Amino acid sequence: MYNKMLIKENYDLTKTIAAKLLEEADYPWEVLPRIGEFILSLGKELPEEEYEKRGEDVWIAKSAKVAPSAFINGPAIIGKNSEIRHCAYIRGNAIVGEGAVVGNSTEIKNVILFDKVQVPHYNYVGDSILGYKAHMGAGSITSNVKSDKTLVTINCEGEKVVTGLKKMGAMLGDNVEIGCNSVLNPGTVVGHGAQVYPLSMVRGFVKADSIYKKQGEIVEIKNR
C-alpha cells in the first residue's frame, strides 16, 4: 500500500529543477533534510545568462518577478518566469519552480515547489514538497511539527509509516487542489489529482484522484 505514496506515482520529475535529488529517493519526505545542500550544489551550475546570484546563496532567474517588499533568505533558487509577490517571506532551503507563484504574505521554508505551483494568498508552507500545478487556496497552511514534538508518522490506510523526521509538513502530488483555510497536519500525503474541501483538517494519506470532504469521507473523482 505504501506504493501509492512513491515519488514515481505522484510526481512528474520533468517539471522540477530538483529532479536529480528526487530521483535518489523512493518517498518524497526522504529528501527534506537534503534540500539545502542540493541548492548550494545546483546553484553554482546554473547558467549565468538565465540566473543571477543576489546576496548569499540566492539564485534568481532574470525572468522572475520579485516584489521589492519580498524577503528571500538563502539557500534558495527562484525559477524562470516565477512570481514572488508583495511581502512574501522565503526563509531558506527553498526551490521555487518555473512559473510558480509565492503570494502576498506567504511564508515558505525547506520546500520544493514544482513548476507552476501556486501558494498565492496568506499561506504557510514548511518542510513540504508540492507537485506540478499544485494549488493551495487562500489561508491554507501546512503544519510541520507535532504538538508533542515527537517524530512524524504517516497514517496510510490504517498503518503508520515512520518518517524519522521531527519536521514534516505535506507532500502534495501533481495537480492537487487544497481548499481555502485548510490545515494539512504533520505527515499529510495527498496523491496526484486529489482535491481537498475548504476548511478541512487533513491528516495522513489521501489517495490520488479523490475528493477529501472531511475525515472519514473521501470519495473517488469520477471519469478519471
Low-confidence stretches: none
How many domain units? 1
Q: In the CATH classification, which architecture applies?
A: 3 Solenoid
Terminal Cα span: 20 Å
Helix fraction by DSSP (H/I, runs of at least 4): under 10%
- Net shape: globular
Beta content comes to 35-45%
Tally of contiguous helical segments = 3
CATH topology: UDP N-Acetylglucosamine Acyltransferase, domain 1
Report the order of strands and helices: HHHEEEEEEEEEEEEEEEEEEEEEEEEE
Key terms:
224 residues, mainly beta, UDP N-Acetylglucosamine Acyltransferase, domain 1, 5-stranded mixed sheet, 3 helices, 8% helix, GMPPB_C, GlmU-like
Topology:
Layout: H1 7-10, H2 19-23, H3 35-43, E1 51-53, E2 58-61, E3 65-66, E4 71-72, E5 76-78, E6 83-84, E7 89-90, E8 94-96, E9 101-104, E10 107-113, E11 118-121, E12 124-130, E13 135-136, E14 141-142, E15 152-156, E16 159-165, E17 170-172, E18 177-178, E19 183-184, E20 188-190, E21 195-196, E22 201-202, E23 205-206, E24 210-214, E25 217-220
Parallel strand pairs: 2-5, 3-6, 4-7, 5-8, 6-9, 7-10, 8-10, 9-11, 10-12, 12-17, 13-18, 14-19, 17-20, 18-21, 19-22, 20-23, 21-24
Antiparallel strand pairs: 1-2, 15-16, 24-25
Structural features, described:
- The protein has 224 residues and is mainly beta.
- It has one domain: Hexapeptide repeat proteins (UDP N-Acetylglucosamine Acyltransferase, domain 1, 3 Solenoid), CATH 2.160.10.
- It is built from three helices and 25 strands.
- Strands 1, 2, 4, 5, 7, 8, 10, 12, 17, 20 and 23 form an eleven-stranded mixed β-sheet that branches.
- A hairpin with a 4-residue loop joins strand 1 (51-53) and strand 2.
- The longest helix is centred in the first third of the chain and has 9 residues, at 35-43.
- It is globular.
- The two termini are 20 Å apart.
- 46% of the residues are buried.
